[in-house]
User: Which sequence fits this backbone?
């Protein structure tokens, strides 16, 4: 497999050095692997820290900035970062108002963030945690590690970030974050597998004429392999899986997310089908975002995320945000 | 019953680092089938960092060797395996205290405590198709190091038939059956290196 | 090849319907294939119209909005739109102040826009035209169709769009556009070919271990095939080709552009190398943009564009823009 | 010398639409080697629109048939070939005026005028490896339709050895040699259909 890299070992460091050079509004510590907004810590403001394996860009580093994250910790490709990074990030953004860890629900992420929370609290930093677990493809039962965090992470980081930017205290920011997390549902589909630099070949084989339903964002195969479907059928399957899990009783935010290698042209066509299905199922879409936001390297495919919102959450969504990956209102 | 000094533990973990370096692709391949294709590179990175740390400032006591190694794993591996293997070694290191030499019974007891700590942290039990399916039988076979190696290998082999209930592989449900758990395979490597270190004494 | 579509024939219409559903701030006429900002025509404001083959998204439809384009005409995949679309777009945005056509220098685009200009002028609309021809991989000589328009298009549309938004008259907007066009230079590299819906297989074969230097954005092979290079070597080749053509005598805007399927993680690493080479060659980078902006469906690869700017152009770059693909300042 | 009515021109272009429908993949394949892989779908789309337009409201005069067809190509094809083929037919249509029947000399003269207009619009000359390398010899062989077909085919074939100086293929420089120009191939299809229409009279 060909990659635009200097060697598998250098991928993360090189990317962070490039981020540092491209974004003077961020402080990027490529050695210790922490991305922090330049004006942190902001007196009186709760610090939002997230992180996870790399390969999902712009998540998380691209969501650092006013109105969203204060810091992000990029791990190795598809590998949770280590506690040292998180502790360093917490210290960098802590102004005395405490820190919220936004954690995608994977065993590795949970274990590392928990260790970090313990260490940060030993350092006198109050830490709260929100788990994102929005992927309805995973049955949440005793027989799994629980639902994965995928596209819903964007909503949690944006809305909790807006609350923190408004000056809400830690308990309130955490409450918003949990509310958003609980209100988010996602479903993903792969037309092809990603290739990690370390492995150098696709993480699974997907023959022509087949697709994977219910995939995650780490190159793991999905819940089910099926004969190739049209965009319209895929939209029905994805929306169907989400609504079967829980039908929203109010308006939703909609994320039509590309996995990395699916052209925006196709993604918009797919998004149109998703909106059609939602309309047929009488779900009101308040805001729509179409693009590559929570990716899986060069995976071909897409995911759909719905997040039910009330007036307050909608206001937080519309609030200004200024990050490399998401920006409006300033 | 033999006594083990810090050198023994350093040799064990340095040998293990060599195995992980050599076997990284195989572990990643296993993780690719039912996980996210990173277990080999995770463990290679962590164990090479352990070997480097032990080389740079070799601790003088068995417990200190394990503590330093565990902390290094936590700081360099990430993923699920970093905290889990880190906890295994840190907990075992704590159990060994400051003693400059420890007997094999103490080693067995310390590693068993480490495995208990892993199980508690991970919320996993036998049969969940995780590293515990290799670690648990291995520590139960101690202090016979050769038997522990065999038990770990058989435990890893037995994960092939299991359906995963923890970690990433659990997302696959029935589709996880038929593949060896990468963490169990790496645990077998760890006990293989331990048996070799013991045999070399 | 697997695609997230309903059939090759439906790709453009479906994408436009999806755009319409996702972007209430745009008027998307999927049947006639015109994307117009909802508040057009704006009294007294010059209308900016662009267009080109589809498959380069977010270019051009994703650049419609305040501060950039007033309308865009999407053609079939990699095929220039037809004059009818352009005439319709011109009429929709014409407020009496005239219309500027932003045309990428391809035979098809030039011929169709020229026909449209004639027809629009017959309808009493004053039309000016700017050609974008920034690709230094093409020798501009009697023996070629002249340089292709690629990444520089983003700069022309942004800066001329800002000038128009400020209320500059047509002659002035056209002058800015030509100045930006003349000051822009690009070079592109492919690690893999794109697959068009109509053809269904990659437009050229690129074996493992090889790459194409000097590619365009339509799946055409490049100037030269070479053994695979590192990101650092590719950055040196791309920047070298640009500076060999003309070394900037002042600060530049830098676009590090992904062709569609190259992960952002790799693109940032590559961007870091580009900035390093520019620093070594003593070129001052005033602003940097990293991302997928002028794409070629699912092509793996990247391009580098430099645009030399003076104070005025830098101010126009920093001016607010609010489009689906590029947004800041509001 | 035969006279031709509107029906002849409608049959010509309808037959050509059939050829383009059948040969679209081959044309796209040619365009894939030295262009952007769309010539076949461009021409199929345009010619099917021409056939539909001619079917819907069949113009009564040869000139009107060509004008409508040319306008339809301009409105539906896009790319380089839309304006070029559109100009060819529109200019030829204008040359034929309102006459209800035209002789073969007039047809030859009109198509030659169309090709001149294409050359002027395109700024291309013989040997540039474009559709003109098939169109020019074809109109020069008229009013012998069979000879024109052969000349167009040979002209297209001869583009294989040429280095492109116009259109997308010119970006490739020397690498354009060794491939037939897609536009020249489609021009050969057009004159093949013309010869078939004439032979059927
Ligand atoms: N809850 C758990 N309990 C015990 N072991 C686990 C658990 N979750 C994961 N593991 C082990 O970790 C291994 C995966 O490690 P690794 O691939 O490095 O991390 P990640 O899954 O985060 O990518 C699995 O094969 C399994 O043995
Ligand atoms: N300047 C030109 N003069 C004459 N013919 C041209 C010129 N440019 C392109 N062509 C013809 O157009 C053909 C390509 O048509 P098509 O693929 O439909 O358009 P595009 O190149 O815009 O994708 C070429 O094969 C060539 O015959
Ligand atoms: Mg992992
Ligand atoms: Mg893994
Ligand atoms: Mg084309
Ligand atoms: Mg073409």
Assistant:
């Amino acid at each position: 497999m060909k990659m635009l890299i200097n060697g598998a070992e250098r991928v993360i460091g090189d990317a962070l050095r490039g981020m540092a050079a491209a974004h003077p509004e961020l402080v990027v510590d490529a050695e210790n692997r922490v991305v922090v907004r330049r004006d942190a810590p902001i007196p009186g403001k709760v610090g939002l820290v997230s992180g996870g394996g790399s390969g999902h860009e712009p998540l998380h580093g691209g969501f650092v900035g006013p109105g969203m994250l204060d810091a992000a910790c990029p791990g190795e490709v598809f590998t949770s970062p280590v506690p040292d990074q998180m502790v360093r990030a917490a210290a960098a953004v802590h102004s005395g108002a405490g820190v919220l860890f936004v954690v995608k629900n994977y065993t590795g992420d949970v274990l590392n963030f928990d260790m970090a929370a313990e260490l940060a609290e030993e350092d006198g930093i109050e830490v709260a945690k929100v788990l994102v677990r929005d992927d309805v493809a995973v049955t949440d039962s005793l027989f799994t590690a629980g639902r994965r965090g995928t596209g819903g992470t964007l909503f949690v980081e944006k809305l909790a970030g807006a609350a923190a930017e408004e000056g809400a205290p830690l308990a309130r920011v955490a409450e918003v974050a949990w509310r958003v997390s609980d209100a988010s549902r996602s479903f993903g589909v792969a037309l092809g597998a990603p290739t990690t630099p370390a492995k150098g070949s696709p993480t699974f084989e997907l023959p022509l004429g087949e697709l994977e339903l219910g995939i995650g964002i780490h190159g793991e195969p999905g819940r089910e392999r099926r004969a190739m479907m049209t965009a319209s059928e895929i939209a029905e399957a994805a929306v169907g899986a989400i609504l079967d899990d829980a039908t929203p009783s109010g308006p939703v935010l909609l994320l039509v997310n590309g996995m990395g290698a699916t052209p925006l042209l196709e993604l918009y066509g797919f998004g149109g089908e998703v909106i059609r299905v939602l309309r047929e199922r009488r779900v009101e879409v308040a805001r729509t975002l179409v693009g590559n936001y929570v990716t899986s390297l060069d995976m071909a495919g897409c995911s759909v995320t719905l997040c039910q919102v009330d007036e307050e959450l909608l206001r937080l969504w519309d609030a200004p945000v200024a990050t490399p990956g998401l920006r409006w209102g300033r | 019953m033999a006594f083990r000094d810090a050198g023994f533990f350093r040799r064990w973990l340095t040998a293990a680092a060599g195995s992980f370096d050599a076997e990284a692709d195989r572990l990643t391949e296993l993780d690719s089938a039912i996980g996210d294709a990173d277990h080999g590179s995770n463990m290679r990175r962590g164990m090479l960092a352990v070997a480097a740390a032990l080389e740079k400032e070799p601790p003088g006591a068995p417990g200190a060797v394990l503590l330093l190694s565990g902390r290094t794993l936590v700081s360099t591996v990430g993923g699920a395996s970093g905290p889990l293997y880190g906890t295994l070694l840190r907990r075992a290191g704590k159990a060994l205290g400051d003693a400059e030499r420890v007997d094999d019974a103490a080693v067995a007891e310390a590693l068993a405590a480490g495995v208990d700590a892993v199980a508690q942290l991970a919320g996993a039990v036998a049969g969940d198709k995780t590293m515990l399916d290799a670690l648990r039988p291995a520590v139960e076979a101690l202090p016979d190091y050769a038997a522990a190696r065999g038990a770990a290998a058989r435990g890893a082999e037995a994960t092939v038939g299991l359906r995963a209930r923890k970690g990433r592989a659990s997302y696959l449900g029935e589709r996880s059956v038929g593949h060896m758990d990468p963490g169990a395979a790496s645990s077998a490597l760890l006990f293989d290196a331990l048996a070799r270190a013991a045999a070399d004494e």
In short: The two ends of chain D are 12 Å apart (CA to CA). The helical segments of chain D are 6-34, 39-56, 62-76, 81-96, 104-122, 132-141, 145-158, 182-200.
